[in-house]
Structures are given as C-alpha cells and as structure tokens.
Design a protein that fits this description.
Layout (H helix, E strand, L loop, with lengths): L11 E4 L2 E4 L4 E3 L7 E3 L14 E4 L1 H11 L6 E4 L5 E4 L2 E7 L7 E7 L2 E5 L21 E6 L11 H14 L5 E4 L5 H11 L6 E3 L4 H9 L7 E3 L5 H4 L3 E4 L16 E5 L6 H6 L4 E3 L7 H11 L3 E7 L1 H10 L3 E4 L11
Parallel strand pairs: 3-4, 4-5, 5-6, 10-11, 11-18, 12-15, 12-16, 13-14, 13-15, 16-17, 18-19
Antiparallel strand pairs: 1-2, 2-3, 7-8, 8-9, 9-10
Length: 339
C-alpha cells in the first residue's frame, strides 16, 4: 500500500446491517434491507430480500430472482467477472469465489488501497462454477466456516466413489443423499456424471428449480426425474437427492430400505452424522477447509486479514503466526454451510 494511501480501516466498517463501504455508500451482503447492496452469492444468509438497489453477477441475480421474486431488489445491476464500476468514490470489481454458480469476491479500491471481501469460497475444483481467483490486496476479509485444523476435506471424487460403491453393494436399496438446493446438489450431480453414473437421478421437488437454472447456465446435469411423484418400484435401487431437512418427510416412506447419506463438510464430525441418522456421511464441502484457508492467506499477500464469521479465533491465531495482522469481525447473521 503506498505511503499516501488511506487504509481500509478508515472507510470499511461494520454496522448493524453488516459490512459498510462508506465512500461508496453501500453494504456487502447486508443482513437487513439497505439502500445499496453488493451481494457475493445467492445463499439466503448472504442474499436477503428488500434492498433498494442490488449489484451482483448475472448468475447471482438470476438465483435471487428465482428464490426471492420481487424481493430480490428494487433495481438489479449485473456486473460480470472482471468488470469495474465506480460507485461513489470506490471502484468495485467482482472476481470468482469458487463457492457456487455466480459466487464472487468483491474487490474494493479507494484512496490508493485495496480490500477484498471474499464472501464464501473454496479452492477445490468444481465443474459448476468459476474457480477462485486470488487477488493481491491490503486487507483480505475472509470467512472461516471450517477454520480449524481438524477440517481437512478429502477429494470430492473419492467421496462420490464411496457412494457408488455402496450402490453396488446394496443394489436393491434406495440411496437418498441430503444436499442443499444451491450449489451442493448440482455439484454432487456433476461429480456423479464425471464418475460415469449415467442413470436418471431423482430429485425432491425443492431441488428442481435451481437445477433448471444451472442448466440454463450451460451446465449439463443429465437426466433428472421428480422423486416425490415416482412410485416405489421406480425408486428401488435408485439414487435420490433431497434437501437435508426433507430426508425424513412423509414422501420418503416410499423409498426402499433407504441408505441415508448427507453431503456436507460437517460430515467430518461423526457426532453430527449420528445425530442426523446418516448411514453414509459424504465429506463434500463448498467451503474452504483449513489448508485452503491458510493457503489463501499466503496467496493474496495481504498484510492484514479480517475474519467475518465461522471459527474466527483459530484463523486469527494462525494468521498471527504467519506475520499477518488479523482480527475477528464476528458479523452476525451468517449461517453454516448450505444456509
């Protein structure tokens, strides 16, 4: 940062609504309705309804319209990856975050300094979204959902191989996989297709609208069928995806001796799997694990890091060991994976 630059702590601050960019007059991922918002991605804890003016990638805006209807915002301004616009006295640019379709980091430049607000992100390969792009900056604002050394996610293709192996061992049982509607569902499907699974995949009705949106974005998901109207014979030995909270609903009684699986980074914690009645935990995460978080701190080269939510203390401590100044913002209103 040049000697005459104005450090981001003077113009980027927290408010009850969230992170506020004062010289631009806008919030990033505000948790309550505001005049102007820049949204990193479409998950409901980041993309909330009621803002007067919303800026995001075209894909994120499409997701918000699909999920929120008229609540997506009074006016919607698309901003493609790499494009730069001037908002007040701040230059805003969006770059890929690798989290879900359309997810972005917000690059903010003002008075000779640069801050990057990551939103949620991951570094692992994902065919359903653009890969994370490190951006050198003076302050990096990061999540820490899996910010503990115990969280080291295995390769996702290996977890899908475990699912397919179980289907071979128990060919008569229905395998039902809990997967969040935005991002996780589509990623699991593309991983299955990449592994050679070409049979129809049955979906709970709540998952279909966003799968249609992914298809509109050019992502091939293969043949998908509605699970909630299929008969018991069709579902015997089939693969079904459903929201995690719907696995035990009444429609699932038609499933043939189901093997219950759940795709989440939290499946690394055995107690969570047992509490959810999960027979086949699949450690597939759309967030960076511990090693990816630490690697990202190195890659962006920021001398200062702010941690928005998650396991803040451990990552702040690790940053200090790396010679990086760090502090926890402890922003409220952001959920765990798949919110």
């Amino acid at each position: 940062m040049p000697a005459a630059a104005l450090h981001p702590r003077h113009w980027l601050r927290t408010t009850p609504e969230g992170l506020y960019v004062e010289p631009g007059g806008f919030h990033v991922d505000p948790v309550a309705p505001v005049e102007r918002a820049v949204i990193t991605h479409g998950h409901s804890d980041h993309a909330r309804p009621g803002h007067r003016h919303v800026m995001a990638t075209p894909a994120t805006l499409a997701i918000m319209r699909r999920r929120l209807g008229d609540g997506a915002g009074g006016t919607l301004q698309p901003l493609g990856y790499g494009e730069a616009v001037r908002v007040g006295d701040v230059t805003v640019r969006l770059v890929p975050a690798g989290h879900v379709l359309g997810s972005a980091q917000v690059v903010l430049e003002h008075a000779g300094a640069r801050a990057v607000v990551s939103g949620d992100y991951k570094r692992a390969p994902d065919a359903t979204c653009a890969p994370f792009e490190p951006v050198f900056c003076d302050v990096f604002v990061t999540e820490a959902t899996f910010g503990l050394p115990v969280f080291r996610h295995p390769p996702a293709h290996g977890e899908v191989a475990r699912l397919l192996h179980s289907m071979t061992v128990f060919p008569e049982r229905t395998h039902v996989v809990g997967a969040y509607a935005l991002g996780k569902c589509q990623r699991v499907i593309t991983l299955l297709r990449a592994a050679g699974y070409d049979r129809p995949i049955h979906l709970h009705g709540a998952l279909m609208p966003l799968c249609d949106l992914y298809r509109d974005a050019g992502i091939d998901l293969g043949e998908l069928r509605p699970a909630t109207v299929a008969d018991a014979a069709e579902l015997r030995g089939a693969l079904v995806l459903a929201p995690p909270g719907a696995i035990a609903d009444r429609w699932a009684r038609r499933l043939s001796d189901p093997v219950v699986a759940l795709a989440s980074g939290w499946m690394r914690v055995r107690q969570r799997a047992r509490q959810r009645g999960v027979e086949l935990p699949l450690v597939i995460s759309d967030h960076a694990d511990w090693d990816e978080l630490v690697d990202t701190l190195r890659d962006v080269g920021a001398p200062e890091v702010w941690v928005t939510h998650g396991r803040e203390e451990a990552l702040v401590h690790q940053a200090g060991r790396m010679g990086i100044r760090a502090r926890a913002l402890s922003l409220l209103g952001f959920g765990e994976e798949g919110a």
